[in-house]
Task: structure prediction
Amino acid sequence: MKLMAAAFASATILMLTGPAQATGPVNTGHDVVELAPAGTATPGHAVYVALSQHIAPDWHTYWRNAGDSGEPPQIAWSLPKGWTAGSIIWPVPSKLPVGPLMNYGYEGSVLLPVALTPPAIAMPGSIAEIRAHVSLLVCSDICIPEQADLSLRLPVTARPHADAKWGSEVSKTVAHAPKTAALTAVMNRENGILKIAVTGPAVRSGDFSHAYFFPSQTGLIDHARPQILERGSKGLTLAIAPGLAFSAAHYPRSISGVLSLGTQSYEIVAHEGPLPRDARGSSGARDGNNLDTALSLGLLSAIAFAFLGGLILNLMPCVLPILSLKVLSFAGPKRGAQQIRVQSLSYLAGVLATFLALASLLLAAKAAGAEVGWGFQMQSPVVVAGLALLMLLVGLNLVGTFEAGLLFQRAGANVAAHSGATSAFLTGVLAVVVAAPCTAPFMASAVAYALVQNPLTIATIFTALGFGFAAPYVVFAFAPKLASRLPRPGVWMVTMKTALAFPMFATAGWLAWVLTLQAGTSALASLLGAGVILAFAAWSFGEAQRRSGRGARAFQIASLAALIATVILTMMGLRGAETDAFNPRDATVAAGLPQVPFSPQRLAELRARGKPVFVDFTAAWCITCQVNERIVLSRPTIARAFARAGAVYMVADWTRRDATIAHALAEQGRAGVPLYLVYGANGDRPVVLPQLLTEEIVSIAIRRATRA
Result:
């Protein structure tokens, strides 16, 4: 009788209150969204309420791991007291190739269910006011962030009643979502290929020609490259190109995600271990496809990215200090077309040789177990001090303190004053050494890809990077019409040569500042002293050039002695100086934006507390980073935006070598800085901001993070 009474009461209440009532569908611009309940709520039991999306044709939104780019939808719930919301139940996504990239997401219509649980003391007959702020990134040829505020009046009844409009569709979506099953998954790396073997009743038989593994996080696999299926008697194995996370010394020991088999899909966690033989065999569904040939499709994309990245690198702030050397070489005496071509090819050779040398050193360091990344050479105080003194010497040469004559031409030290093949080659070397710490758009993906490949592939990608970097100079030299428009030599060249010394002096000063952050004030004092002695050596050498006989020899000896003293003083000042280094981030960003040093543990703690976190992967030697910090992040408007949002500014300073930061970069599929991540209050994945920031970009990202 009690059960019948309760049912009668529930039916009566439902008739009086009506079904769940939502605000009408909201058109965000390229997506029509609304809240879709599976039915009524009952005290203490979960009811599924889905975010319904009707996405415009040719547009898409994203899965929980968006792939190579994008951002998943985020829902910020406002629930009655005592109610709780679970995580989004994600249907299996579609693969969304965009040029050389691979994204994961949804097109057309999709439901994203979330379990909402009322408290056990919820009163049947009451109406629960459910509100949600939805943030979406909707993409086609461009990406547009869109938002909507949704609400739902959800009846509470003693027994559940399905929603007439949405009940069947939401229940079907939940039923078909990836589930855990009695599957055993193992992962291992063989010859640079990541293999995931899955065994169990669900994979013993069936047509698995469309088997695909969707990783739960980015950086675990190379999304754009194909996955090759092998069938065994008790399961299957997928051969996958690993992501940058596996290039680090402390690579992941397990990998999670969704195994889609066409009609069925499963949540799996593959732990490192030996692959079972009964999960391997013929290549079945992709018979005839050679693994190496299939995976090489990603190489073509990486080569294109490397070339574009090298080309764009010429426009990055890191390269600006060295551009004066290139400008001066163009303004030299008139030369024939053959001479110009020889110079351009020599410059190209210097660029290629240096890129390949840096790649070799980087790989050697990684093979030795070091956690390093692109720009690693600037983490060495010895390299920084040497470059500072070299820039000083080049500047002194440009202002006429000495002339690098025949002796220095043969030694290859005259990188600016003369126009021979040797100086063009060394200009290319110097340009790469100074520019390499920057990471241009497209370049980051290419370098990240290269670092997990075999030596031949690495050499190919870095060669493409070098060709891109040198392309403007080479094209100019091989275009007769452009070369004919060069101004004629004149007195103006002497003035320009002297003026171009000052970028060299500015670069030397910047490098001295970097050295101070790396090795402390004692190293800076030694460098300044060495600079004075080096200037004396340059002046003495210049005096020797202007004299003859014993006077010239005396100045030559003085110059050589001063040069030796410069080297000795510099090395003595750097010996053990790192222990004297002060906090690398002292006064880097204006007061008013408190900084928290980066650590994975601290980041996890802040996120657990629901704090939005802005993580700045930076370095003192990265000029792009410094430009962003001083022009954007130091602005009062940014400090106010952080304060309003209660957001935390976390700095991952890579000025000095740091294995933890190198590993964190690798997890994000990056090999260098800058990198800017914004973690929402409740979001699973960070939003990656562009390498060149604006106040608007940062403010919007922080504001959206508070609603995540």
Summary: The two ends are 47 Å apart (CA to CA). Residues 299-503 form one domain.
